[in-house]
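Hi L., both proteins are below.
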Amino acid sequence: MTFVVTDSCIQCKLTDCVEVCPVDCFYEGPNFLVIHPDECIDCALCEPECPVDAIYSEDDVPAEQQQFIEINATLAEQWPNITEKKDPLPDYKKWEKVQNKLQYLEK
């Protein structure tokens, strides 16, 4: 099993989760983070660190967010690894409560 980054991360890209990951399984895109499913060890350290509640255990991903399981797997193969906390996107406060942001995902 793995953890999955979902819709709430889009346009925010808060990296508190990256800092606690013991296996460096996060990958960074322009406005979103993903978890590599083959690298995640299911430690659950990242989930409570996410300020926007974007991270779920694969078994607990809400029905309307299921497409993010495949999105994480695909983009983790394309994007660079991120291992240290960075500043969030400049206007993340504007986006942190917005839902259904998939159309804003930059690949």
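That was the first. Here is the second:
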Amino acid sequence: MEIQENKYQSLIEQIGGLLQSGRQKAIQSVNTILVQTYWQIGRYIVEFEQHGNERAEYGSQLFERLSKDLTTAYGKGFGRSNLLYMRKLYLSFQISGTLSHKLTWSHYYEILKADSELEIGFYSKQCENENWSVRELKRQMKSSLFERIALSKDKDGVLKLSKKGHVVEAPEDLLKDPFVLEFLNIPEQYQYQENELEEQIISNLQQFIMELGKGFAFIGRQYRMSLGGKHFYLDLLFYHRILKCFVLVDLKRGEIDHLDIGQMNLYLNYFKKEEATEGDNEPIGIILGAHKNHILVEYATDSISNKVLLSKYQLYLPNKEQLQKQLSKLIED
């Protein structure tokens, strides 16, 4: 009986898809069991401490002895640092059901390096929401993502951020201040031009979209608009899948001024009349500059009905300690 080649290839694809799905589920199941096991180990350690044999001090001999004995009996994975983080895992998530099935122990190991319970809550939820790899998680934590978003909110907003992650519900939720573009590898003192900044962003588009946040879909660069016989060019054009609108991004090497705001207002009016289709919400404009004059911005944006958002960008990682001080002041007020 002759085998029909097209049906045979279909059989191979079906089996391959099943195997791939099964292996992925097996890996996920192993990760879930591992995290739950480490959580339980952390619980045992805390309960042992609370029964009076040891107190919760990192300098205690408990962890050194425990590490040595567990390694001898069960092999690798029980270094002192690992055991401390297992303990912290339990203390940070005392209800095991709050642990995410999407995150591996490697994710939690990084998340638990955060300095506060607010940060731990935010990064665990945000990592789950956006399916970050461990590498991307590290990058977002180094860039102080939590502090940069939190500083744009009030005290209640910060607490909500920690519990639910960064949920985009309004245009203002797109802002971080500043946006951090250290992945462009442009030296801080280098006198670059705006077109060079744009070129570097295009070359690192995936990372730039990750920095912008969830929901951005890239449409094009130097998008041409023709008005009254004149041509205007927008640096970067996106569509936001959650807010269902165009997002126009203009890049400025120096300080954002009133002319930039007026120009963006022009672009937004064009998009409302010429580009938006049924079902689209009103477009949003984001102007990214190295500096912004807050007083000038306040007067220039007053009475503008279009949504024009302004933010700084920087080419280096922010000073986390300084941001944390600002955030502490915000929460305490």
